[in-house]
Every structure is written in C-alpha cells, then in structure tokens.
Design goal:
Chain lengths: 112, 110
C-alpha cells in the first residue's frame, strides 16, 4: 500500500526566515507529485507539480520554490517567508496527470 | 476547464441518504467528473469519478445526467464521519491543474 508522509506536522516561523517542507511517497514508483496551499478558510490552490525526478512545473507564483531530488521525495522551500505564506500545505500524488490524487496529512505553517 | 456550481451547504441526519448536486453546464466531452471530500485540518480524500456512466464504490454512488451537464453524488446512510466539504471538480486526462472551489459543506446531525 502507498503511504505519503509530510514533515514537519506544524511549524511556527518568523517573517524573513527560510522554510523547507518535505513530502515522501512510499510504495509507488515514479508517481506524479503535487504541492498545494490552503489559506485558513480559503480554497485549495495547486502550487507545483512534478512528473519525474528533477523536473518541477510552477502553477502559482507565491515566492516559493519546489524540487524533486529523488523519485519519492518532493521539497517545498523559500529563503524568506512572508506573512502571506501562513496556511496549510499539502502534498499529493497520482499515477498520471488528470487522475485521482491522494493527499498527505499536511503541514500547518504559521508565519509571525 | 469548465466550471462547476455546488450549493454552499447542506444538512442531513445520521442514517439518511444524501444527494449532493453539482452543475457543470459547459463540460467538455473529454472532462471527467471527480469528487473529493475534505474535513478541517486534513487533506482532501478522493471519493469517486466518472465520465458518462453512473459509478459506484464503497463510499458513494455517482449519478451523471445523460447530457453530462449535471451530476449527483449520493451518500447512502450517512454517519457523523461523512460530515465534510464535498468538492465536484472537472479534469481532463493528462491535464494538471484541478481547480478546487468552495464545495458543499455537508453537516450531519446525530
């Protein structure tokens, strides 16, 4: 069975500080991977997607970047956090683009 | 991608069968209808999807109108655990950006 793990579970960071969020998929080779962001009370927005190692496509510009260093790993990062980065970050995977997506437990980020 | 329209909220009671409507009047022939649900502080959960034929699984029954301009997610015998925001989304094969809207918030009373 496939499992998706995100870390950390929650984070409180200062404005201007760096950020790194991680996501790991186990039990599925070569998945498509996705990062989503949801502001408190807001709708889910896709930020990035990746169909293979080393390739990441940006969907929404939020002064964030993403990388896929391994087949089963997806990283979301920024060098300088903004207040507007606060929210819920979700990683997801699918077998192919357009197929159903399976989401991780999420990381709650608070920027102060 | 075509847009979907859903009611903001619906209420039900445990044990009832719930019908969640979704309107997609401008759906394209190659767009699938996907349903997800999300509870607070958790990621969305895939429920079901279909193209033209009605579909059923352990979670729900998806009824698709013959002209595909609307669909209804049917939840039999709802429990408190079915309380969530239900999203109806249209997706094309090999297309990436599913658009989650506000969805329908389903409340379930004991």
């Amino acid at each position: 069975a496939q499992t998706i793990h995100q870390w950390p579970v929650a984070e409180i960071k200062a404005v201007g500080s760096p950020l790194s969020l991680g996501c790991t998929i186990k039990g599925k080779s070569s998945p498509n991977l996705y990062w989503y962001w949801q502001a408190t009370g807001g709708t889910l927005q896709q930020l990035f997607y990746s169909i293979t190692v080393g390739q990441v496509e940006s969907v929404v510009q939020l002064n964030l970047s993403a990388s896929r260093p391994k087949d089963d790993q997806f990283i979301l990062s920024t060098e300088k956090l903004l207040l507007s980065h606060s929210g819920f970050y979700l990683c997801a995977w699918s077998l192919r683009l357009g197929a159903e997506q399976y989401f991780g437990p999420g990381t709650r980020l608070t920027v102060l | 991608d075509a847009k979907t329209t859903q009611p903001d909220s619906m209420e039900s009671t445990e044990g009832e069968t719930v019908h969640l409507p979704c309107s997609h009047a401008t759906i394209s022939g190659n767009e699938y209808i996907y349903w997800y649900r999300q509870v607070p502080l958790q990621g969305p959960e895939y429920v079901t999807h279909g193209l033209q034929q009605n579909t059923t699984n352990s979670m729900a029954f998806l009824a698709i109108a013959s002209d595909r301009k609307s669909s209804t997610l049917i939840l039999p015998h709802v429990s408190l655990r079915d309380a969530a925001v239900y999203h109806c989304i249209l997706e094309r094969n090999n297309n990436n950006a599913p658009r989650f809207g506000a969805g329908t918030k389903l409340s379930v009373k004991p």
